[in-house]
Design a protein that fits this description.
The structure is a single chain. The protein has one domain: HUPs (Rossmann fold, 3-Layer(aba) Sandwich), CATH 3.40.50.620. It contains seven helices and six strands. The chain is globular and about 45 Å long. The mean pLDDT is 94. It is 33% helix and 17% strand. Keywords: ATP-binding, NAD, Nucleotide-binding, Nucleotidyltransferase, Pyridine nucleotide biosynthesis, Transferase. Its EC number is 2.7.7.18.
Protein backbone atom coordinates (compact mmCIF):
# COMPACT_ATOMS: atom_id res chain seq x y z
CA UNK A 1 0.00 0.00 0.00
CA UNK A 2 1.17 3.50 -0.80
CA UNK A 3 1.32 5.78 2.24
CA UNK A 4 -0.01 9.25 1.38
CA UNK A 5 0.00 12.27 3.67
CA UNK A 6 -2.95 14.60 3.13
CA UNK A 7 -2.37 18.28 3.79
CA UNK A 8 -5.77 19.98 3.68
CA UNK A 9 -6.02 23.72 3.29
CA UNK A 10 -7.45 26.73 1.57
CA UNK A 11 -3.95 27.58 0.28
CA UNK A 12 -5.04 31.18 -0.08
CA UNK A 13 -2.25 31.46 -1.16
CA UNK A 14 0.20 28.59 -0.72
CA UNK A 15 3.44 29.80 0.91
CA UNK A 16 6.91 28.46 1.74
CA UNK A 17 5.76 27.25 5.16
CA UNK A 18 3.39 24.76 3.49
CA UNK A 19 6.13 23.45 1.20
CA UNK A 20 8.81 23.30 3.89
CA UNK A 21 6.47 21.31 6.15
CA UNK A 22 5.57 18.88 3.35
CA UNK A 23 9.25 18.50 2.44
CA UNK A 24 10.12 17.71 6.06
CA UNK A 25 7.37 15.09 6.31
CA UNK A 26 8.50 13.36 3.12
CA UNK A 27 12.08 13.13 4.35
CA UNK A 28 11.54 12.35 8.04
CA UNK A 29 8.18 10.60 8.35
CA UNK A 30 6.41 7.67 6.62
CA UNK A 31 4.41 9.19 3.73
CA UNK A 32 5.76 8.49 0.26
CA UNK A 33 3.69 11.31 -1.24
CA UNK A 34 2.02 14.46 0.01
CA UNK A 35 -1.29 15.44 -1.53
CA UNK A 36 -2.21 19.10 -1.01
CA UNK A 37 -6.01 18.96 -0.88
CA UNK A 38 -7.46 22.33 -1.82
CA UNK A 39 -10.53 22.92 0.33
CA UNK A 40 -13.14 25.00 -1.52
CA UNK A 41 -14.94 26.02 1.68
CA UNK A 42 -13.69 25.28 5.18
CA UNK A 43 -16.58 25.01 7.70
CA UNK A 44 -14.53 27.02 10.24
CA UNK A 45 -13.49 29.90 7.97
CA UNK A 46 -15.15 32.77 6.17
CA UNK A 47 -14.92 32.98 2.39
CA UNK A 48 -14.55 36.77 2.41
CA UNK A 49 -10.95 36.92 1.09
CA UNK A 50 -10.98 33.52 -0.60
CA UNK A 51 -9.75 33.34 -4.19
CA UNK A 52 -11.69 31.05 -6.53
CA UNK A 53 -10.73 27.42 -5.83
CA UNK A 54 -9.52 26.86 -9.40
CA UNK A 55 -7.16 29.83 -9.10
CA UNK A 56 -5.84 28.52 -5.77
CA UNK A 57 -5.34 25.09 -7.35
CA UNK A 58 -3.49 26.66 -10.30
CA UNK A 59 -1.15 28.59 -7.98
CA UNK A 60 -0.54 25.45 -5.91
CA UNK A 61 0.16 23.35 -9.01
CA UNK A 62 2.75 25.90 -10.15
CA UNK A 63 4.32 26.01 -6.68
CA UNK A 64 4.89 22.24 -6.38
CA UNK A 65 5.79 21.38 -9.97
CA UNK A 66 9.45 20.60 -9.19
CA UNK A 67 8.66 17.88 -6.61
CA UNK A 68 7.15 14.73 -8.15
CA UNK A 69 6.12 13.40 -4.73
CA UNK A 70 3.80 16.41 -4.23
CA UNK A 71 0.33 16.39 -5.79
CA UNK A 72 -2.19 19.24 -5.99
CA UNK A 73 -5.63 17.74 -5.45
CA UNK A 74 -9.01 19.15 -6.45
CA UNK A 75 -10.76 16.11 -4.95
CA UNK A 76 -13.01 18.19 -2.67
CA UNK A 77 -14.28 20.32 -5.57
CA UNK A 78 -16.81 17.61 -6.44
CA UNK A 79 -17.95 17.00 -2.84
CA UNK A 80 -20.74 18.79 -0.95
CA UNK A 81 -19.80 22.06 0.74
CA UNK A 82 -18.58 22.89 3.26
CA UNK A 83 -15.87 20.23 3.17
CA UNK A 84 -15.58 17.83 6.09
CA UNK A 85 -12.34 15.87 6.44
CA UNK A 86 -14.04 12.60 7.39
CA UNK A 87 -16.26 12.72 4.28
CA UNK A 88 -13.25 13.37 2.05
CA UNK A 89 -11.34 10.51 3.67
CA UNK A 90 -14.26 8.13 3.18
CA UNK A 91 -14.40 8.99 -0.53
CA UNK A 92 -10.62 8.86 -1.03
CA UNK A 93 -10.35 5.51 0.75
CA UNK A 94 -13.14 4.12 -1.40
CA UNK A 95 -11.55 5.31 -4.64
CA UNK A 96 -7.98 4.38 -3.65
CA UNK A 97 -8.17 1.11 -1.69
CA UNK A 98 -4.45 0.57 -2.33
CA UNK A 99 -3.51 3.79 -0.46
CA UNK A 100 -3.05 4.37 3.26
CA UNK A 101 -3.94 7.99 4.15
CA UNK A 102 -2.60 10.04 7.05
CA UNK A 103 -3.93 13.49 7.87
CA UNK A 104 -1.36 16.24 8.39
CA UNK A 105 -2.58 18.94 10.75
CA UNK A 106 -1.27 21.71 12.94
CA UNK A 107 -1.41 21.74 16.71
CA UNK A 108 -4.18 24.36 16.52
CA UNK A 109 -6.43 21.91 14.67
CA UNK A 110 -5.67 19.03 17.01
CA UNK A 111 -6.63 21.16 20.00
CA UNK A 112 -10.00 21.85 18.33
CA UNK A 113 -10.56 18.32 16.96
CA UNK A 114 -13.62 17.79 19.17
CA UNK A 115 -15.45 20.38 16.98
CA UNK A 116 -14.80 18.36 13.82
CA UNK A 117 -17.46 16.19 12.22
CA UNK A 118 -17.16 12.59 13.51
CA UNK A 119 -13.86 13.37 15.22
CA UNK A 120 -13.71 10.06 17.07
CA UNK A 121 -14.19 8.03 13.89
CA UNK A 122 -11.51 10.13 12.21
CA UNK A 123 -9.11 9.37 15.07
CA UNK A 124 -9.90 5.66 14.96
CA UNK A 125 -9.56 5.28 11.21
CA UNK A 126 -6.62 7.46 10.14
CA UNK A 127 -3.26 8.44 11.62
CA UNK A 128 -2.82 12.13 12.37
CA UNK A 129 0.61 13.67 11.83
CA UNK A 130 0.55 16.78 14.01
CA UNK A 131 3.10 19.56 13.60
CA UNK A 132 3.78 22.32 16.15
CA UNK A 133 2.28 25.80 15.72
CA UNK A 134 3.43 28.88 17.62
CA UNK A 135 1.22 29.60 20.62
CA UNK A 136 -0.44 26.16 20.79
CA UNK A 137 0.56 23.84 23.64
CA UNK A 138 0.41 20.20 22.58
CA UNK A 139 0.63 19.10 26.22
CA UNK A 140 -3.06 20.04 26.38
CA UNK A 141 -3.93 17.86 23.37
CA UNK A 142 -5.93 14.65 23.41
CA UNK A 143 -3.81 11.50 23.51
CA UNK A 144 -4.56 8.67 21.09
CA UNK A 145 -2.57 5.87 19.44
CA UNK A 146 -3.25 7.39 16.01
CA UNK A 147 -1.89 10.83 16.97
CA UNK A 148 1.78 11.27 16.17
CA UNK A 149 3.44 14.55 17.14
CA UNK A 150 6.17 15.31 14.63
CA UNK A 151 9.14 17.57 15.30
CA UNK A 152 8.83 19.62 12.12
CA UNK A 153 10.38 23.09 12.07
CA UNK A 154 8.02 25.81 13.31
CA UNK A 155 7.11 28.55 10.82
CA UNK A 156 5.24 31.55 12.17
CA UNK A 157 3.80 32.24 8.74
CA UNK A 158 0.20 32.21 7.58
CA UNK A 159 -1.75 32.82 4.40
CA UNK A 160 -3.55 35.65 6.23
CA UNK A 161 -0.23 37.40 6.87
CA UNK A 162 0.75 36.83 3.22
CA UNK A 163 -2.53 38.32 1.95
CA UNK A 164 -2.23 41.33 4.24
CA UNK A 165 1.34 41.97 3.10
CA UNK A 166 0.34 41.66 -0.57
CA UNK A 167 -2.61 44.00 -0.07
CA UNK A 168 -0.27 46.50 1.61
CA UNK A 169 1.96 46.42 -1.48
CA UNK A 170 4.87 44.59 0.18
CA UNK A 171 7.31 42.63 -1.95
CA UNK A 172 7.28 39.28 -0.17
CA UNK A 173 8.65 37.29 -3.09
CA UNK A 174 10.77 35.03 -0.84
CA UNK A 175 7.90 34.03 1.44
CA UNK A 176 6.17 32.43 -1.54
CA UNK A 177 7.27 29.47 -3.68
CA UNK A 178 9.25 30.31 -6.80
CA UNK A 179 7.14 32.16 -9.37
CA UNK A 180 4.06 32.56 -7.16
CA UNK A 181 4.66 36.23 -6.29
CA UNK A 182 5.00 37.14 -9.99
CA UNK A 183 1.90 35.12 -10.88
CA UNK A 184 -0.16 36.86 -8.17
CA UNK A 185 1.17 40.29 -9.20
CA UNK A 186 0.74 39.73 -12.94
CA UNK A 187 -2.83 38.49 -12.49
CA UNK A 188 -3.76 41.15 -9.88
CA UNK A 189 -5.15 38.47 -7.58
CA UNK A 190 -4.92 40.59 -4.44
CA UNK A 191 -5.54 44.35 -4.55
CA UNK A 192 -2.44 46.58 -4.29
CA UNK A 193 -0.02 43.96 -5.71
Amino acid sequence: MKHVGLLFGSFNPVHIGHLALANYILEYEKPEEIWFVVTPLNPFKTSRDLLDEKVRLDILTRAIQLEPRFKASDFEFALPRPSYTIDTLDQLSSQHPDHHFSVIMGADNLLAIDKWKEAQRLLESHPLLVYPRPGFDLDQAQKHANIQIIQAPVFDLSSTMIREALQAGKNIRYLLPHGVYDYIRDNKLYPSV
